[in-house]
Amino acid sequence: MNRTTSMPVITNAGPSAAECGPGWMARYNCPPWCTMRHDGEDGTPGWHQGPAAEVVQPVPFVDEPRLEPGASLVSARVTTVNDNEAAWGRKTTIWAEVAGGLFLELDAAQARSLHEGLRAFLPQLAQLTAELEREARDDHDGDPAEQARAMAELDERIKAAAAG
Fold first, then answer.
1. Predicted pLDDT of residue 7
2. How far apart are CA 155 and CA 140, in angstroms?
3. Of 2, 31, 86, 154, which has the maximum CB count within 10 A?
């Protein structure tokens, strides 16, 4: 069984198990950090997930309509799977998801490596953003009439190549 493809989708993370109290923690065998709603639709016993750390999309992307404002671009959460501990053991990892469907299951060393890579990336992104701001000062829209002429010319070249 590929356990990562059958992961529950957490749609309504609630209060932590510690906030729900010792009865909740005992009933669902929850670690204190678990925010999974075990008594709801996504309440698979033996799975535990903490709150997500995420980067959300603040404004729409022109070229990517699937990413609505407020949608998660990147999210990560600690997950423990121990639904059949005798057979599968107990496994705690970080599950990270990137918009577009990339899913990563990271052990501690992989998570640390990703964290270090992102820490190195952020100053580079800041530098690129400053460069973008300098260079974008000269940006402007093209002439719609010229765009139509260029597209008509391209269409003619494609038709000629196809005929020829």
1. 39
2. 25
3. 31
Query: How many CB atoms sit inside 10 A of residue 59's CB?
Result: 8
Q: Give the model confidence (pLDDT) of 105-157 as tens digits.
A: 999 999 999 999 999 999 999 999 999 999 999 999 999 999 999 999 999 99
Q: Which two tokens stand for residue 44?
A: 């698979």
Can you give the pLDDT at residue 122? Answer: 93
For residue 66, the Cα-to-chain-centroid distance in whole angstroms is 13
Reading the block at residue 73, the tokens are 């671009």
Tokens of 50: 């903490």
Distance of CA 24 to the CA centre of its chain: 29
- DSSP E strand boundaries for the chain: 47-49, 53-56, 72-81, 91-98, 102-106
Calpha distance 145→8 (Å, rounded): 52
Q: Which residues, in sequence order, are bridge partners of residue 102?
A: 98
Query: Closest Cα to residue 30, out of 22, 164, 62?
Result: 22
Contact 4, 43 (CB under 8 A): no
In whole angstroms, give the CA distance from residue 65 to residue 81: 34
pLDDT tens column, 56-100: 877 766 677 667 777 788 899 999 988 888 898 999 999 999 887
